[in-house]
Structures are given as C-alpha cells and as structure tokens.
Amino acid sequence: MVSKQRLFDDELLNKSKEEREKFFNDYTVSHPKMKQVLIELKNEIYKGSHNIIMVVGPSGVGKSRLFNATINSVIKDMKQELEENKSIIPITGIELPNPDLGKFNWKDFYYRVLTSVNEPLIDYKIDLSVVNKMPNSPLRTTRTASTAAALRRSIESAFFYRETKALLIDEAQHFFKINSDYRGNSEKNQKQFNSIKSLANMSHTKIVLFGTYDLNAVFNLDGQLSRRVKEIHFPRYDFANDKDIKNFKSILLTFQKLLPLPREANLMEHFVYLYENCIGCTGILKNWLQRCLSDALENNEDTITYTNLKRNALLTKKLLTLANEALDGELIFKESKGDKEKLKELLGTKKDVRTDKKEQKNNLNPGKRKPTRDDVGLI
C-alpha cells in the first residue's frame, strides 16, 4: 500500500510506465524562490514602468517552469475577463531557437509570435504601406509569402486587439548570439535591443526575456541597454544560506513523495550528494530524478536507490562548468562595499580632509566660547 502521505493515488501504480513518467514530469513544484520571482514578475507586468523585463538565472534553475507558471497564473488572474470577452489573449510566449549560422532571423521570430496568438493567414500578410504606393503591384491579386515588415505590423495589431499584456520569450540570450559571440559587438547588440524595445512600445505590450547570465552580461556591457531594462534574478539555492538549505530539503521531500514507485525513496538520506550533483538548481534536480524514475521503471525496481542516483547523475566536469557559470553570474547581483567606494570615487563624492576641516570650522554654535586654556596666576 502507498502511504497516505504520498502525493499520488494508489491507482497510479497500476498504470503504464509512460503514464507514471508523465505524471512526475508534468508536476511543477512551486518552491519559495520560484514563488518570490513569480510575484515580482507579475507586479512588473501589471504595474511596472519598464516595457522590457529580464529574468535571469543559472542553467537548470527552472526558468522554463517559471515561464509556464507565469502564463498559467496570469490567465487564472484574468479568468473573469476571459469569460466576459473570449477574444482577448492576455499573455503569450515562445521559445527562441538558437540562430543558424550566427544570424538572427526576425521573420521567423515574428512568425512564431503570431502563431502563439493563433493569428490566421500568417502566410498571406502584406505591408499595405508599400502596396498602396504601387497601384499595379501583383501583390494586390497574387498570394505571396509575408515580409518581415508585414508580420511585424500584424503582431502590433494582434497584440492591440487581443489586449495582450505580455510576451514571454524563453532562451532570450539567442537574440544576441550573433556570430557565436554574445559580447563582441555592442553596436549589433544595441540594434537587436532597439528592435525588441520598438516592438514593445508600438504594441503596448511588455516583453519578458528569460535567459541565462549571458543575457545579463550583454546588457551590463552597455549603459544604454541596462538602464532601460528591469532585471529580476532567479537564483539557485545556496548551501551557505541556512534558509536556502531548509527550503531545498523541503523541495527534496516533495519530490520524494511524488515519485510513483511502490516504495518511497529515502532521498533525504542522500541530501548532500543530491545538492552537490544539482548545484542547488531545482531544474537540474528534477531532470535527474526523471532519469532515475525511468531507469527504475525500466528495470522493475520498486524504489530509487543511491546506486540508481549515481548511475544517472551528470558528469562531474559538466557540473563544474555549470557551477562556475552560476557563481560568476551571481557576482553581478551582489552589492559590494568596494563597488560603492569606486562609484563615489568616480563621481567625486568621497569626502576629503579639506572638506571635513572646513565643515568643522564653520559649524560652531553662536555665543559658545572656543575651547582654549585661560591664563592663571598673573596680575
């Protein structure tokens, strides 16, 4: 019998391997860091002053889960409005593909966005501003493939009439992966960003970029870019933080009770090993446990053991790369006294000795004697 504390019904154990895997894979654990970021992100979508919002974190932290959770949460918030007006699409999202040959394809991007809002006749969009200048143009009578400009105008129109509040873009660092280099060309990055910002302004829709720390590094290289974007950090769980470790253990226990196997695994017994091999990222942990579950079901094992965990863990070299990238990225969000002092030095706001002496000299109270030694013993 399955314990009453397990997070699935007994009947699930009688279902197929595929159904049990799907149950675990589809289940999203809303943990403290995800909840915190989700609240901040929704506040920015509803009330924020920035049209471009950037959610960044390490690979495997759970950004794609947050992406889906944001869409579901906004739709839930607007349930009444959606019932009253079935034509609106309050939020939509796409995953950005890695650009082929280091060249970003705007037409493909526009096509994917229009598809996400179920726009009809995407292949037959035309730019009327051009056609109207050409009375004898064959475009008036002949079906042609849509141009990028025509698709762009269609997005602006669709977002306006669909009352779309936000467009979410996963893997957004691919916007700036030009010639296989995120950071090598500030001018090209500026052009890419200006196109994104223009789309947000013209469509009156917030654009939310989900990406790795590479995305944040691009924006921090250019003051013009960084000041126009609202940054939201989605961090991993830090082993040096007691509260983080407590929350990580709670997440581990939840996963333990979600695994649809006859005998409940004792993941808590291997807490440190599990943390090390997911570097505190819940996405890496979830994918690891998915592999373990599939392995256990394939071999007719009744639970997940340490042997199973070890067999399905990522290679240590891969984990080292992920850990180094995460630690480097986290430094961007950590305020340091040294940075503050450097800023003061650059701006010339650090007080010097002359300023202090001048303030002391001019700051005496009226009518109060200066401290001095009186002469004594003289007639």
Q: Can you put this structure into words, describing what you see?
A:
- This protein is α/β, with parallel strands linked by helices.
- The chain has two domains: 32-233, Rossmann fold (3-Layer(aba) Sandwich); 238-331.
- It is 50% helix and 7% strand.
- The chain has 17 helices and five strands.
- The chain has helices spanning 17-26, 32-47, 63-77, 79-84, 106-116, 128-131, 148-162, 186-203, 213-220, 223-226, 242-258, 271-276, 282-298, 306-312, 316-331, 337-347, 353-361, and strands at residues 52-56, 91-95, 166-170, 206-211, 229-233.
- It has a five-stranded parallel β-sheet, sandwiched between helices.
- Strand 3, helix 8 (186-203) and strand 4 form a beta-alpha-beta unit.
- The longest helix has 18 residues, at 186-203.
- Mean pLDDT is 85; it is low at 139-144.
What is this structure, in a nutshell?
With 379 residues, this protein is of the alpha/beta class.
Walk me through the topology.
Elements: H1 17-26, H2 32-47, E1 52-56, H3 63-77, H4 79-84, E2 91-95, H5 106-116, H6 128-131, H7 148-162, E3 166-170, H8 186-203, E4 206-211, H9 213-220, H10 223-226, E5 229-233, H11 242-258, H12 271-276, H13 282-298, H14 306-312, H15 316-331, H16 337-347, H17 353-361
Parallel strand pairs: 1-4, 1-5, 2-3, 3-4
Helix pairs in contact: 1-13, 2-3, 5-7, 9-15, 13-14
